[in-house]
Automatic annotation (TrEMBL):
Protein known as: GntR family transcriptional regulator
Keywords: DNA-binding, Transcription, Transcription regulation
InterPro entries according to UniProt: GntR_C, TF_FadR/GntR_C, Tscrpt_reg_HTH_GntR, WH-like_DNA-bd_sf, WH_DNA-bd_sf
Entry-linked SMART domains: FCD, HTH_GNTR
C-alpha cells in the first residue's frame, strides 16, 4: 500500500522530541489512521512535517520497530506491520526507561489504585490484612538493612490488590511488574536521595497509613492514603523531569 494521507503536527521542544514523535506515530498506527501495509513517508518528509532532526526520526523509527509496529523492506521503505490495530493493551519495557513515561504510568496507577485500595478497605479479609502488614514489616526490615526494598514495595501493592477482591486488579499490578515501582536506578541518575533512609522512611510511613485505613475499613481514608503516596512520587518525578530539561 502506498503512503496514506499523512500529516503530523510540529512538535514542541518541551521534553524528549524522540519520545513525542514515537508517541504520535504510535497513536496514528493504533488508531487505524495508518492501516497495516501503509508505507511511511521518507525520513526527510517526517523531519519537515514534525520540525525535528534526522536523529529524532531515526530514534522514533527504531522504537516503533522494537515494538513491532513497523517493518523495513530493504530497498522499498518502512511499512506499518500487519495486525497492529488488533494488538492487546501492553506497556513496552522501554516505556519504563524515561522519567516522562514513568510519570504517565504513575498517573495510570493513581487512577487504578485509588479505587483498588477503597475496595480493599471494603472487602479485605483477616488473612489478607495479615499479609498486608507482613509486607510492611518486610519492607521495614529491608529498609533497616540499608537495601532498596523495591520487591517488598511491589509485594505490598499486590497484597492490596488481592484484598480488593477483584482479580483484575491483581492481574494489572502483576502485568506492570517491577515497573509498577518506579525504577530507583532511573531516579538515582538525577537525585542521590532516592535510596536514602529518609526517603525510604517516608515510603514506609505512607504504606502504614494505607494499611491502617484498610484495617479500619475506611474507604475514603484508603483513597487519600494512595493519593498522598503516589502523589508524592509524581511530585518527585515531575521535579526530576524539570531538572533534566534544565540541564
Amino acid at each position: 500500500m502506498e503512503n496514506a494521507i499523512f500529516s503530523i503536527s510540529q512538535l514542541q521542544g518541551s521534553r524528549s522530541l524522540s519520545i513525542d514523535l514515537t508517541n504520535s506515530l504510535r497513536q496514528k498506527i493504533l488508531d487505524g489512521n495508518l492501516p497495516p501495509g501503509t508505507k511511511l513517508p521518507t525520513a526527510r518528509e517526517i523531519e519537515e512535517q514534525a520540525g525535528v532532526s534526522r536523529s529524532v526520526v531515526r530514534e522514533a523509527v527504531a522504537a516503533l520497530k522494537a515494538e513491532k509496529l513497523i517493518i523495513s523492506r530493504q530497498g522499498i521503505g518502512v511499512f506499518v506491520a500487519d495486525g497492529v490495530t488488533s494488538r492487546p493493551f501492553e506497556i513496552e519495557t522501554n516505556e519504563f526507561a524515561s522519567i516522562e513515561d514513568a510519570i504517565q504510568i504513575l498517573e495510570l496507577r493513581m487512577a487504578v489504585e485509588l479505587e483498588m485500595s477503597a475496595m480493599a478497605a471494603r472487602n479485605r479479609k483477616k488473612t489478607q490484612m495479615k499479609r498486608i502488614w507482613q509486607c510492611i514489616e518486610d519492607f521495614e526490615t529491608k529498609k533497616n538493612q540499608g537495601e532498596d526494598a523495591v520487591k517488598e514495595d511491589l509485594a505490598l501493592h499486590l497484597a492490596v490488590a488481592d484484598a480488593s477482591g477483584n482479580p483484575y486488579f491483581s492481574r494489572f499490578i502483576k502485568y506492570i511488574g517491577s515497573g509498577a515501582i518506579p525504577s530507583r536506578d532511573l531516579i538515582s541518575k538525577y537525585d542521590n536521595t532516592a535510596n536514602k533512609p529518609e526517603y525510604l522512611q517516608q515510603l514506609h510511613e505512607e504504606h502504614r497509613r494505607l494499611a491502617q485505613a484498610i484495617e479500619d475499613k475506611n474507604e475514603e481514608s484508603a483513597r487519600e492514603a494512595v493519593r498522598q503516596h503516589l502523589g508524592n512520587s509524581l511530585k518527585n518525578h515531575r521535579a526530576l523531569a524539570r531538572k533534566v530539561i534544565a540541564k
